[in-house]
């Protein structure tokens, strides 16, 4: 059933909302654009594989940040690009920097 743009499920439970994650609780953390999904793993996920996944994602994020910094540091780009495009690129950079910070935090918790 769809009501006011929300889907109502008649049976089943998808997840249990939480206000914060426990520092002691071991969990799989998926760092998304503007959110983190925390799934308690309690032996379900290989920590080494998760660490490797986070490290790869961190490197990819660093590469994207470097490319955006290069573009935003290019005076020719800044002179020719419309203001809204420059602002959009700055927004992407800010989002990626936030994501990198969260990835670093999650990696440090795995060690």
From TrEMBL:
It is an enzyme of class 6 (ligase). Signal peptide: none annotated. GO terms for biological process: valyl-tRNA aminoacylation. GO terms for cellular component: cytoplasm. Residues 44-106 form a coiled coil. Residues 49-110 form the Valyl-tRNA synthetase tRNA-binding arm domain. Pfam families: Val_tRNA-synt_C. One of its GO terms (molecular function) is ATP binding. The keyword Thylakoid does not apply. It catalyses: tRNA(Val) + L-valine + ATP = L-valyl-tRNA(Val) + AMP + diphosphate. It comes from marine sediment metagenome. Keywords: Aminoacyl-tRNA synthetase, ATP-binding, Coiled coil, Ligase, Nucleotide-binding, Protein biosynthesis. SUPFAM superfamilies: tRNA-binding arm. This is valine--tRNA ligase. Its EC number is 6.1.1.9.
